[in-house]
């Protein structure tokens, strides 16, 4: 889609908020330097954000020559956001202040036999209520919710969650009566990408990929400063790219998908096939088994290292495919499997990536672990809510600048 | 990369030229409706284009009530462009008028033992000279050149052409003395994408992929109205995504790549492995063998149909990977293998695509043969030259509109 003038205004507001956030406060003049926007645009946006209380003047200092300049900061007292990560194995609800700093969180496990929409929604409502109760008296600016699988973010529907066999579940409507604030639904891939973009302003000038390594696997992709959504918001299904034609059955119905090898159940399958009596196996408990695998690898256990090497092989091949196709600046490994196993997977997978990527894109790409503050999917979901909140607020600029005049720094 | 104000101006000029071209002429008022730009912006761009002679007033009619309105058309007499397609097996130089209509072309084969940079450049120079001679007296506005493999379009260098083992060949400098016009170098993937965008204005609002089926295979990708280039302009290497882990050796040095199965030499290998004595085999002559395969398939030859089915299997899987990853509006099959074999491949590949794509992106995607006018890579290369020419010309708009205010139609 082409950018509209409204898009540009929104992006400029975001750029100012992001710059203030990333720099821990800034003067209007510094914001001009950081964002590349004109002083008039920065000033108009700041005026509106001050009126709303989203930002505050925290200090005023006299420049060596001339008028005193005010330092602007995001106002942590203004209100808070909730970011909800509905994963296959847990529900994580995290509160963030308007500066997107994590404040508190509540997490409940989801049992394998409690996966109906009603059961999961009840869990989410309980966790939201717990976080609401902790922050009584503060304004709830918005709630962002990430649900696994394919999500219609406009209609607020979980179109298809393969692990739960959910079809067309109206999640936003089901949750609406538990929150008195705008609710934004999307999936973890988009949440991871937007979280990365807000946390690292330099990402706006980069093409990047966050590989989501969990029960399901996928890719949050941003190109040219925008999250790639595709026609139906289902872009990013890297987990369902085929790497082994006619290979392992995948829960999507196809065969040989990345997810069948690199998703947590795929890793369990590799372990079970190679070492059926392994003490690392905790039945179908993915979290316990992956954690046991990580602990055993720390101790140099040969079976654990073998399973990690096999997984790295597939991860490296699948990463090479996306590196060759998109030639990105950076590919990050994120989500809970990356948190538990990432340090063992990264260098091994890079070896296989190098063997399968073309020289030019390989030389250009950084391949790293994502280091989020708090739960990155919750952070990304909260970010969507903050974007929605800022979106609801007109700013004083009538003549939107299309973009930073020069590349964003800092 | 973010769009700059200059980007926006350029896009608006392109939008006007495209709209005039696609509609076979239009009034300023119609251009406002088609492009979504303001009347003032359209008028300023038209004034500049008229001064330059890129467009002309071809008719003037009186509206039912009010002032006469002029119909503007691209001016075919203004000058011409050359689009050069350097492929692994031929050099094709095509002349286009400023309305991007093909006028004439010259094609030379490249023998397998004439593949040094000097030898290929001599072929290209001869073909350019032949086309130059045909259009003496007309201004040459620019030359676009597509070279296979990875190209540094800024530096004008063929960074790596795997089939020829070219490394860092300064193609633009080597060709510069044969043309007295700006020369733009890129690769066929970007040429196919830009050709598709200019030929079909509705593509600007779509995410689309043109699969380049030739000796090498790759993907021209456009997202949000822009060609995806990646960090080093090497995006689109779909041919080097792995679909068979540890499968066939690929000329890139990896194994199991799409290209090893779907590229013309891969199809020959499939034929040779299954039917080593097949009369369809014409040694290493890819064009003759693929043409023989197509003719035999027309006659219902079981061996030919079997090879096509095997190729379709891999093509369908590899298309599913890109459909799952990007959720595009449309995937097109283009280039010479698609021209020869496309009608036999398309429906068979669609069956395998359906078996491997997720339901949501599958339902959203159109999967079709590309139907270019003339050689689509030459057209795309010429389009880069036209873009460069328009780029060299300032327009009268000081306050660029960021975008069409509504979706482009027509």
TrEMBL record, chains A, B:
UniProt superkingdom: Bacteria
Disordered: annotated span: 391-410
Residue ranges of coiled coil: none
Pfam families referenced in this protein's UniProt entry, alphabetically: HTH_24, ROK
Signal peptide as annotated in the record: none
Assigned protein family: Belongs to the ROK (NagC/XylR) family.
Protein name: ROK family protein
Natural source organism: Micromonospora echinofusca
